[in-house]
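Exercise 7b. Backbone tokens:
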């Protein structure tokens, strides 16, 4: 099998080992100018943080302790993204996921959008990804529905 891969592999690329993949990866940090002489740092999320962020976008509906449905929870999208990416100059998170509602209520849309746009770029979250997240959470809701009604 190794012989087959040699022709395909790029000679200038390093093939990572399992040990390499499990090492703490340095996350990119950038400074975001918020005008008025103020700035913040945002950083890439880890895989786990990305999953936690995406979980904030789906609300679980419980009845008697059991999940019976899912709803789209895209409100405060920018704040949810910002909270997961705002950091100090060394990459340490400044806020907790539970802080998103307060951030959304207290920060101007202009400044919050600047932060979220940069965080989106760093983490590969495009407008298309946002639309997909909405569609996926809507389809999860449809699939989880207990309704016997016909779907169009």
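Sequence design result:
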């Amino acid at each position: 099998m190794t012989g087959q891969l040699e022709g395909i592999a790029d000679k200038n690329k390093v093939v990572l080992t399992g040990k390499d993949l499990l090492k703490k990866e340095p996350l990119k940090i950038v400074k975001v100018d918020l005008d008025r002489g103020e700035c913040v740092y945002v950083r890439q999320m880890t895989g786990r943080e990305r999953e936690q962020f995406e979980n904030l976008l789906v609300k679980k509906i419980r009845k008697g302790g059991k999940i019976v449905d899912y709803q789209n929870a895209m409100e405060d999208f920018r704040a949810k993204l910002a909270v997961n990416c705002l950091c100090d100059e060394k990459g340490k998170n400044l806020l907790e996921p539970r802080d998103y509602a307060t951030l959304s209520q207290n920060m101007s849309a202009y400044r919050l959008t600047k932060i979220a746009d940069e965080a989106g770029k760093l983490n590969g979250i495009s407008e298309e990804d946002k639309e997909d997240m909405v569609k996926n959470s809507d389809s999860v809701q449809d699939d989880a529905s207990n309704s016997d009604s016909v779907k169009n």
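Instructor comment: Helices lie at 2-8, 18-22, 47-55, 77-85, 100-106, 109-122, 127-144. Confidence is low (pLDDT under 50) at residues 140-152.
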